[in-house]
Structures are given as structure tokens and as C-alpha cells.
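Task: complex structure prediction.
Instruction: return C-alpha cells for all chains below.
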Amino acid sequence: MARRNANGGNGKGTAEARGSALYEVLKGIDFERRELVDKSKGVGLFDLVKEKDGSYRCYSCTLCERTCPVDCIEIDYCPEFEELPFDIEAERAAALATLPGESCGAGAACVMGEKPAGFMPEIDMTKFSPVLAGIRAGSGLVEAFHATQEAFGWLPRVALEEIAEEMRLPFSRVFGVASFYSQFRLQPVGKHVIDVCMGTACHVAGAPLVVEAFSQELEVPIGGTTADGLFTLQTVNCVGACALAPVVRLGDDETFGRMGPNEARKLVRKLRKQEVGA
Amino acid sequence: MTPARRATRIDKALQAARDAGAYIAADDKAEIRVCAGTACHASGRVALRKALEKSLAERGLTAKVAVVETGCHGFCEEGPIAVVRPQGLFYPRLKPKDIDEIVATSVVGDGIVERLLYKDPSTGAALAYEKDIPFYSLQQRIVLALNGKIDPFSIDDYLAHDGYTALATVLDAADPEAVIDEVEISGLRGRGGAGFPTGRKWRYCRANPGDTHYLICNADEGDPGAFMDRSVLEGNPHSVIEGMVIAAYAIGAGNGPVEGYVYVRHEYPFAVERLRHALAQARERNLLGDDILGSGFSFDIRINQGAGAFVCGESTALTASIEGHRGMPRGKHIRTVAHGLWGQPTNLNNVESYANVPWIVNHGAAAFAAKGTATSKGTKIFSLTGKVVNGGLIEVPMGATLRHVIFDIGGGMPDGREFKAVQLGGPSGGCLPAALLDDPIDFESLVAAGSMMGSGGMVVVDDSTCMLDFVKFFLKFTAEESCGKCVPCRVGSQRLLEILERISDGEGTLEDLDRLETLSDDIIEGSLCQLGGSAPNPVLSTLRYFRDEIEAHIIERRCPARVCRPLIRYTIDADACTGCHVCLGACPTQAISGERKQVHVIDQKLCIKCDTCRQVCKFDAIPVVDAEPALIEGRQQ
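Output:
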């Protein structure tokens, strides 16, 4: 890849350039790359990429090991491999300098999963001190996230970095755990959080139509926040108020039962009107 | 000697209550019980309580008539609920404006407010007393016995209703092995879904050496449509704590230290709050913590909150989550009872399993084993939801038939619709047809039928639900909740979903059905945990019992329930339409046009099939019909 060349390395990126036998077999077949679910937690097992001459491209910079959110990569000393004449520290520094946010020094594209947010509120780090106090009192990682989310409404990156530092954990590990649980929000939320219950009873009673109506009226996808920072639309697996299906929760306090698409649109319009009036 | 000592211990704990002058709820006292479960809260119990207190205060009755906020009564469909004692009058679906009339008639006077009474949907008769309502009278409540009777915030209420006597019995006997024997003889099996014998699990855990033994209560009730664990924690948290302390004693006494965790969903704020309160109270009364009731045995419980990952209900994923990792399960060749939380022997049971333990100790294993079937003993709570008249929590002995639960207690289908299927066991379970309604419900028979007990969620659907759409819902859920560790589950469930989507778009082939079956088998074989191992169950059971309906999507390109969007079309019935303009105003895409008092027309090109018009129409003038075959053909090209 071009990026690697910019580093002065020996990148001959694609399989085609390497003329691999596999490429010859595969190039005639028309592949359809299908999307995995958005939340999918992986794409397969890793293997080391080999150069044409049989040598490995990896030069053990250990960046992938440090970045892996699930600690599944371990770089170990292996006497059978020839040592590459690399100044690892210099390479790593160069890689980090030229590839901000990327993890593999050898030019594979492993980008930390942060989507740009539609709007970004100011983060008041004074709210963070109870979380630190909690960690010092022995709370676990997940509990620390709960406390952070309670303070900010979401998990800002700076807060995650602070947690990592306080708990003496790699940031990658902290981020990996935060991204696993669907309740933790890595994006800021709007003033009104609309939770549409997608439990079985609600589904049977027509919840998909309700969430669709919200999505159309707010013009954001599920999980999205409107650009003005007023509304966030979310789904929740089951709030356990199945007798009132379909259920919509507004913030932590208000619950609306037996909703339909028309009621959903009316609710949004009502809230919008309140905001204009306020 | 022993009974005397036991009495002394409980008396001591109770005495503290009496000294403090705490209010103890009782059936023969003048009190008004308001359900404070999540469903009743959502339908407005706070306003109800305020109106009640105001009304009582105006009449100067505040000191004479107590307002008790209890846990979930179970009859969620009729919320918010209030019960007036000592008569036992049951008032459902209350509004704050009704309260004054109730106080005037039934509290001050001795009358009954006829218009507010519960009407039996099958006979139409008004039923005044809680005990007469079939929904309650046909149940046999062990775990839920005190739900709706006691204040979950009051340990005194629980103590006064024989609470913690089982713990005192166990501590007096000082024979942990005997407790395990008792639970084993009772035949109690894990209520979390798999049905592993609880006593045997305790025995294994006790036998495994470790620095500390861990005891976990699994309250990560992730199945959508199941809420029995939440209701037990909300309504009677002390029964779970008592069960856990007994289990801890059975596993840990004379065997090294034991520590306890409750892993509870973060989506259940009331349950967490009440449990936290109950734990503090139990510690205060020396029923938890160091040297419990002077027996020399110490045990404490911590609360750990989940964060919305379904897979964390799996035992090894749950322990990973407590340890602060991503909640990914590991292989079960190393058993949790030997090597669980922090690498130590760990016993993990469900909320309902623990809540059964005090009853077994108090009433004896034989009494418990007398209920249920040959292999499944005791009772089971089901949360009955979906298209059914009396939705809510139902506790019946194992072996009751589906018909008994859905029609006798649940009141059958609303609006005279036809029963189509019942889905048991959440996303891991299966859909059972009307032909199996008379089968008894126990662990084995459900598995044989292609479903499973799961945690006890029971969702009833009628002929307006498309089975294909229903299965798609479950698969979408498992595909999203797959932790991603095993490829067959992560990718396979996604592919299953794609095939189903193809069929519901009217583009499926009959070979797709074979593909579904083969892929399902592979997913079951190739997954480490039960999330993947049971994810294809809804597909397989639907193919087994509702193949016709799925084939209709393929062969006739028709959705019999008229749900799958590409195969349906909204029309206006010219005879029924009054031209009232309501649908026209509600349509989000301006697809409906027409003059006032003239029959309206839907522009099929603009219609997004959002169902709004049909829902707002007061004259049933918008029938959903099959899409024209020509349209489907056209779309395909």
C-alpha cells in the first residue's frame, strides 16, 4: 500500500502484486462481498502476510498486540525466524507519526472504531471525579463505565482514557470492553432519548412500524442523534412492560404504552413544539 | 432444642422490627395495596399513590389505613392495580380520578364501586374479590406467594411472613450436606432454561477445592418477553437473598470462604434499587455478612450490573463480564463449578431457582417433589404476553398444559381472533402450533417438541402475525447479540436471516428451505455456547410446524398473514369509506387523496405501507390485500 511506501518500507500491497497462486485461482470468480451486521464483533482469524520471497511482512512491532481489544494477539520470541534488520522503535515512531489512529505498523487497515458524531457537546471533566473515586474504592471496569455514563450520558473518549490510566489497563482493552456492551454509548446523546422497546411482545404488537415512524419523523437512523442535539433514537431489547406493548420510553421517567406510528409522529411533533416554545 | 433455638434467632431479628414499630402488612388489616411493579409503574402508579394519600389525608385516615406499595401482582394487563384490604377488593386499570370514589365507598364505607370492577372476559360477570378472579385462583404460587402481599422495602414484612425461618433451620441443623441432599431429593432443576439439577450442581461445587467458592445469582434476564426474575427481585428480594445464603452455607460451610454476586440487568432499575435496599437490611439484622445469626458462618453478596449483552446470561460469559472483560463464553469442557469466576469453583443459579430454596427447606423436599411431573418438579413461573387477554405472570405446577395456561388462566385470544402459535423460551426456543396445546409443559416435552423451557417467556400470536416475520425477528436478535467468537454463529445466523429475508421479499426458492435446515444444523454443531447452539431453534420449529405458511411466500408469492411488505398492498374499501379525511391527514407520505365525504384513494407508488392509515381508520375501511402478482413480477425485473 502507498501508505507503507511513504514510510520507506518494502510494501508491495496487494495479492496481485505478489502474484500469489491463490489470486490466480480467485480472480476469475465473481465475488460478492456481503455486509456483516453493524455490531459484528469480528471478521475471521488472522494470518501473517507473506512476501513473494517467502519472508514475512510483519516485523514484530507489537502494535497489533497492544491495540487488540480482545487480547487475542500475542507476539512471542521465536528462534526459527530470522531477525529482521529493523530499528523497531524508530519504525514504530514513524508509523505512529504518519498513520494517526492506525494500529498496524506494516500497513494493514485496523482503524479504531470511532464514527464522527453529528454534534459534540462540551465535556465537563469535573463530573468525572466520582468515577475515579469509585475505581479507587475497587469498582470493576463495567461498573466504572456505568458511573461514567451516568455522569455524561455517554462514554467520551477522554473519560475512557482516564479510566485506562487509573486502572493501569491498555486503552485498547478499555475501549474493547466498552464497545462490546450495547448499553454503553460511544456517541453523545441528545436532550430527549427515545427508547423503542423491541421485545417479542412489542414486535408482535407492531413495534417495527413505530420505530420506523420515529426514524422518518426525526430523519435519523436507529442509534442516531439529530443534528440539533435534541433527539436520540434508540431501541432496547425488553423493558418488561409487555402488557403495554408496543412501549416507548422517553428519558428515564416517562413511558408510553400501546403506541402506533401515528402516535409516534405526534409525540415528536409535540416535543419539537415544546422546544420551540421554551 | 433445635426448634427452640431457631425460634430464638428469628425472634431476635423480628424483635428489632417490633421495637422500631415498623408496619407489617397483613390480610386482615385495613390497607390499600398498590402494585409497584414495572408495568404498573409505566401505566401510572405514582399518580395513583399520590391521589390515594391525598384522599386518605382529607378524610383523616392516614394513620388508620396504610398504603402499601407491593411488588408485581402478576396481572400486568390490568395495571395499575389496587387491592383494598381487609375485604380483598380488586380494582384494575385505575385512574387517579377514580380514587376518591373508592376511598369513600370501600374504605370509609363497606361498599363496592361496581363500575370499576374487573369483568371476566369470558362470562362478562363483574368480579369483586381478588380470590375469585380465575387468573389468580387457577395459579399455584410458591415463588410468587408473597408478591403483592408484602412491601419489598420492608424486611419486617418478610420476617413476619415466616421469612428467614428456612435459613435458621439450616443453620441450626449445621449439616451442609443434608441441605444438598434435601434440594436434590426435591428434584429442583435450574430455572434458567437448561434444567440442570440444582442439588447436584451444589454438590459438585462443594466437592471442588478452591481458595474461595463463588456463588452467583443470574438475574441477567435477557430473553425479550420474559420478566419473571425481575418481578421476583422487585416484589420479594429477600426470598432470593435467603435462598442464596442457604446455598452458600450448603456449599461453603466448613469448606473455606464463600462470596456472592448478583448479576442483574441494568435495564431493571427498580429491581436493583430494591435488592440493594434488601441487602442492607439483611446485613443490619445479621442475616447476611459476618457471623450470620451467631452461627459462625459468614457470607456477603455484591451487586454487579450488566450492560445490555444477551450473551452475558451464559454462565462463562457472565463470569467474564464480572471480571471486566468482553462477555464472551468459553468452552464448557472445563466446568464452572470447578473453574469459574476468578478461576475458582463457582455455583451459578437463576433467581427463580434460589427463590424456591426457602420453600423447600420450610415445607420439605417431599412436598415440593409432589408437585409437577416425573422429571420436572415444583412450579414454574411463565410470563404470558402477546395476543392474549390476561397477560402477566403465571405460576403453575410443571406439567400443566399450554391450553390451561393460555386459555383457562390467560383468558384466550382477544377480539375473537384465532390462536396461531405460542413461542416459548425466547430467541432460543421455538414456536408451537395449536395441535400441541394439550401437551404438558416440562423440560423434556418442550425439547422433544422442538422448543425449550428457557426462562419461561411465553408469547402468544394470533393469525395476524406472519410466522416468517416472527422468525426473522428472533434471528435478527441472535445475529445482533452473537458475541462473535464462533464463526458458525456469527456469520451463520446472519446468513440464515438473509435467506429468510429473501423469502419474505417473495424471491425465495424451495431449495432455500433445505439450505435453512443444513445451515441450522451446522450452526448448532459449531457453536461453543447455547446462544449459537439454540439460535436456529425458531427456524427449525417453524419449518416443522408452519411449513405451509413459508411455502406460500415462495410458491404463491403471498403472505397469508399480510405482514411481509413486498407482498401486500393497502387499499380502500369503497363501501366502508366515509371520506372522513382522518387517514389522509395521518399519512406521512401524502399517498392518500380524495374529497371530503368522497371515497379516498391510495396512490400505490407513494405508499410506504407504514400501517398508519389502517390503525387510524374508525370504519375498518382500509383492508390489506395481496399485492398484485404483476407488481411483484415487475419489481423483480
